[in-house]
Amino acid sequence: MKYIEKLHYITHDIPHLSHIEQVQQACEAGAKWIQYRCLSKSDEELLQDINAIAEICDDWGTTLIVTDHVHLNGKADIQGFHIEDMDADFVKLRKLVGNDITLGGSANTVDNLIRLAKEGADYAGYGPFAITETKPNNYNLQGIEGYQQMVKELKAQAISIPVLAVGGIKTYDVEALMQTGIYGIAVSGAINFADDFIETYQDFYTVVKESAVN
């Protein structure tokens, strides 16, 4: 079973910080898991970003996951991919990238999670927890009760996959979320738009670690 960090930091296209600057600050704050999420650049631009980010992550011992763009596997020092397409075939993806690459997927129903687990995904992001401007969508908000119910249903079916809450999460939400029995948290906007990026990352990290029940 692959190592999955309990706090995932996700980069985003924002005006005041480049993806590289976001990663630099996150690593300085102690991040051990970076998800590079950029859906707006050409392959050449993506690889320029990823190569620079991979060097930073390597310096800090940080895992680098890339959102989608599986076709870039082997072209840069990427440890894994997070696939946002909820209909993606993870059996095919696993054959494509091999067993050493970490594969994560997005889900917003328990059925999604069960399929990801059965098809060999290493972890899943489940949400949205609350309204999020980072990744606008029309999915039902989960809230605390949604995560409680999801954990209960997975246990009842003996399904085991690390599940991370994602979408509009603030530091004051984390303790209650972790108490539901989920594996961890994924955060983007609450850190990117904070007055103090590094302090906010560290606040999230502390409360995730202190609140974990598994």
Automatic annotation (TrEMBL):
Which reaction does this chain catalyze?
A: 4-methyl-5-(2-phosphooxyethyl)-thiazole + 4-amino-2-methyl-5-(diphosphooxymethyl)pyrimidine + H(+) = thiamine phosphate + diphosphate; 2-(2-carboxy-4-methylthiazol-5-yl)ethyl phosphate + 4-amino-2-methyl-5-(diphosphooxymethyl)pyrimidine + 2 H(+) = thiamine phosphate + CO2 + diphosphate; 2-[(2R,5Z)-2-carboxy-4-methylthiazol-5(2H)-ylidene]ethyl phosphate + 4-amino-2-methyl-5-(diphosphooxymethyl)pyrimidine + 2 H(+) = thiamine phosphate + CO2 + diphosphate
Binding, 2-[(2R,5Z)-2-carboxy-4-methylthiazol-5(2H)-ylidene]ethyl phosphate? T132, E133, T134, G168
Name the pathway: Cofactor biosynthesis; thiamine diphosphate biosynthesis; thiamine phosphate from 4-amino-2-methyl-5-diphosphomethylpyrimidine and 4-methyl-5-(2-phosphoethyl)-thiazole: step 1/1
Q: Where along this sequence does the record place binding of Mg(2+)?
A: D68, D87
Q: Which GO terms describe its molecular function?
A: magnesium ion binding; thiamine-phosphate diphosphorylase activity
What does the UniProt keyword field contain?
A: Magnesium, Metal-binding, Thiamine biosynthesis, Transferase
What are its cofactors? Mg(2+)
GO BP annotations, alphabetical order? thiamine biosynthetic process; thiamine diphosphate biosynthetic process
Q: What's one Pfam family here?
A: TMP-TENI
Gene3D superfamilies noted in UniProt: Aldolase class I
Which residues participate in 4-amino-2-methyl-5-(diphosphooxymethyl)pyrimidine binding?
Answer: S106, K135
- Cofactor note as given: Binds 1 Mg(2+) ion per subunit.
Q: Where is the Thiamine phosphate synthase/TenI domain?
A: 10-191
**Record-level GO cellular component terms:** cytoplasm
Q: What is its EC number?
A: 2.5.1.3
Q: Does the keyword Magnesium apply?
A: yes
- The enzyme's first-digit EC class, named in words, is transferase
Tell me which CDD domains the record gives: TMP_TenI
Its biological purpose is as follows: Condenses 4-methyl-5-(beta-hydroxyethyl)thiazole monophosphate (THZ-P) and 2-methyl-4-amino-5-hydroxymethyl pyrimidine pyrophosphate (HMP-PP) to form thiamine monophosphate (TMP).
What family is it from? Belongs to the thiamine-phosphate synthase family.
Q: What is this protein called?
A: Thiamine-phosphate synthase
Organism field: Pedobacter alluvionis
